[in-house]
Amino acid sequence: HPLHLGYLVQFGILSLSSLSMANSGQYYNSNNGSAYNNGPGYYDGEEEEEEEWNREDFLDPAWEIQQKKTFTAWINSFLRKADTSIEDITQDLCSGLKLMLLLEVISSEALPKPERGRMRFHKINNVNKALEFIERKGVQLVSIGAEEIVDGNVKMTLGMIWTIILRFAIQDITVEEMTAKEGLLLWCQRKTAPYKNVNVQNFHMSWKDGLAFCALIHRHRPELLDYSKLSRDNPLENLNLAFDVAEKHLDIPRMLDPEDMVNNVKPDERSVMTYVSAYYHAFSGAQKAETAANRICKVLRVNQENEKLMDLYERLASDLLAWIKRTRPILEDRSTDNTLDGVRDRLNQFRDYRRAEKPPKLEEKALLETTFNTLQTRLRLSNRPAYLPTEGKLVSDIANAWKGLEKAEKGFEEWMLAEMQRLHRLENLYKKFVLKCGNHEAWMEGKEAQQQSQDFKSCKLNDLKAMMNKQVAFEADLGAHQERVEQICKIAEDLNSLGYHDLDSVNSRCQAICGAWDRLGVLSTTRSRALREAEQVLESLDQLHLQFAKRAAPFNNWLDGANEDLMDFFIVYSVQEVDSLQAAHSEFRASLPAAEAEHRAIAHIDAEVRELAAAHGLSGDALINPYTGLTARELAMKWDEVSARVPARDQSLQQEVARQHQNERLRRQFADLANVAGPWIEQRLDGVSSICSSGRQLSLEEQDRRLNAIQDELQGFKSNIEEMERVNQSIQEAFIFDNPHSPYTMETIRVGWEQLHTSIAKALNEVANQILTRDSKGITNDEMTEFRKCFNHFDKSKTRRLDPIEFKACLVSLGYNIRNDRQGEQDFARIMALVDPNRTGQVGFDAFVDFMTSEKTDQNTADQIIQSFRILAGDLPYVTSEVLRRELPPDQAEYCIQRMSPYGGPDAPPGALDYTTFSATLYGETDL
Amino acid sequence: MYAMVMSPPSAPAAPQPSAPSTIDVALHRSPDQRWGFRLQGGADYRTQLTVMRVEPNSPAQGKLRVGDAIQTVNGKKSRQLSHAQASEVIKESGNSLKLTIVREPNAAACLDHIRPPGKPKFSRPGS
Q: Compositionally biased, Pro residues: which spans (chain B) (predicted)?
């Protein structure tokens, strides 16, 4: 039954080149005087052992006795399946019949029909058929002759059997590409490693005390013997125990004699190997199952981790997009309540957003991008299709949304500063309006009543003349005031067009002024006409009074204007502007002496009136100037007012100068910080790019360390940025909108700072992905360094990316046969599509390494997993949950049981599960 | 020497990776014949529906290539289809099947003929 021989070589699969046993073709091919010709000592090719064999040849060979027993038992372990056996290895094989039967059982193949005759030539023919079969299995039996076997030559017979044992029981033992003998030894060493008192170094002395056999059994079937009770002082007991247990529970016949093992100075190596190989085959099923289980677990784990990364990406993308969606309308809201406080509140909110809300989101974005890269790298490495995020959550969608956010952000801050400036100017304009209105209203006080007065109907001629002249003066005054009313209207108009927040009060006040002004104009015209009508009746004028009145009115107007100018509010943004205000003020001061002269002249006229009156003894009404309401005293008061306000104006201008100098200091303070921070950030940016692309050859771990060091530095530098933000806030609050002392603005520093954060995060991720690639592909550090050197050499632009021309040159230098013709162009376009699937026109280092180390032909992973399940299932086309629970860790077993559908094939017992479909499902593969 | 292999200035610029092409493919089979390609991915795997293997002497041979990303099946968009749904639609498609695929410029096709034999060997730049 083929299952019993399952461990035997599947002939078609092994190629001769994989038969690395005995290290060389020496053993199979040598014709001349090798150890083979000298007898059974051909095997090892190790000179030392050959000598030992040869020496033992001369002595009474204990090995011959032992080999006879062992080989006989080994042969019988197969012949029993054909219900026969041998007793004497030389006598019972010499007819060739049982030899042919043995080979048929071992190989599960039919040999040519044996000849039934009992003649010597029949026997020779049969033995030859057996030998030919062995040779067909890839073993050259140089100088083993059928005659010697038929004649019962012991050494030759044993040699031939050993050849069969090697070919059919030992050859297929390969552990990590070692020779079969080394592989078997390594297997023994690994399995007995936990047993302190066992040290397997060979296949003779190491087995004398029997503990190694017991250890092998205990390691695989601990329930079969109590290892802790064993002692190396009882070799016979140990050997008997192991051999009994092996015979009873493992179906391995006794092949060694415990007495021989103990008594022989050195047990026979071939006998021990033959027996140990039976252990290997008994346990190798478990071994294969373990490997298969490991492979399944690894694939399941990779799948689960990829799913986790996909979940992480989706979650990050949703969160980030939702946040951007919430945030953008806030930044795009340009509504204003037209008050400075309202704008200040929003500017403060914006600062909080920049300082506290946005930075963690930037980190999330970096994490999102690195997660995406890691995931795609992992999928590429495990030969899966590229990850396709949910619609609307592609990397490009995130990037676009982010770009939109930053655009909104920039527009928002610009708008807000402009808005603040506008409202500030508006506030000042309103103050000017209030002042002018106040002055005008004070001037208007009583004017309407006076113009409506009927006094001229009951007065003397002189009084009438006076009234007429007074009216002329009043009209002059009215003309002078016209301009001021227009100014008030203009300011009101400006307040309207600039959207001042309290327009109702502005407009009603302006309307009141205009209405009164119009009425006054009408009244004045009416009164003038009435006075002129009365003129024919009355006349008489006092020249002196008239003179006074004529000079006093304009002077009074000048005084009012000067007072107004001196109280004027100013708003300046630079030292130059305040300087020009000071210049205007100086000009005004220069005109003071002329005004003072005018003042004296008017006062002098008044004095003349009094002197004249005094000289002529006049008093009372005659002293009152009938031509004007202005008195010298009033003018003197206004003059004093003007004189007093000049120093006050001086002082406020000087304060303004001081304030502008303070602003200048703030600009310097900011510039000093920015001029340090700017270059600092630029240097770190250069540092990051040089770590990843420098000609210096740094290991990935070293790159990782240095990048982390820069990240730490960044943490330390953060306080400088915060200091700058504080200074910048003072600057904005002082209404400073330019700074000629630094090429850096807060905005450029912020951008550089964030860019630095981002590029470190990106570089760290690249390094991590390279480590992942390196470790998962088993690339050594030296190979990685070579890749890095080569990549850097062609990275002429030092961007850590190769453009297509650089990349092509790189490949050609590495021996790629990219021809300079159409075919070559097509080949190269295909390569670019592999290494740059997003068509950025650039090739990163990890994509380069990935390409350089990718498999030449695609591995068929789902089939590997199906094969692994088949091993667990004992070669059946289905698997049961019991098997899965026995062979896999609990969570992986449940994962499989939940997902496997019932097996639908014929002869399936209840509960049979379909691992083939499941494996395909694991990869998302279907053959159509 | 690396310098030796740089393209001479007169050589045409390296070909830009050509854009992926969208191709309509029509397959035909006789009853009981399989289409002869392996499908991988799908919405439930959150990966592209992708052709991962094409069997020789099958209806798919010469029409589909490894790496083709399937966009529509018989005129219907397939982005939202799970792997099983897509497989079912294709299996049940009678004797003719229409696919729209996006083909990277032969990305996954075999590049062995231009690869250097053995592991990549580097000579130290400048040495």
A: 9-18
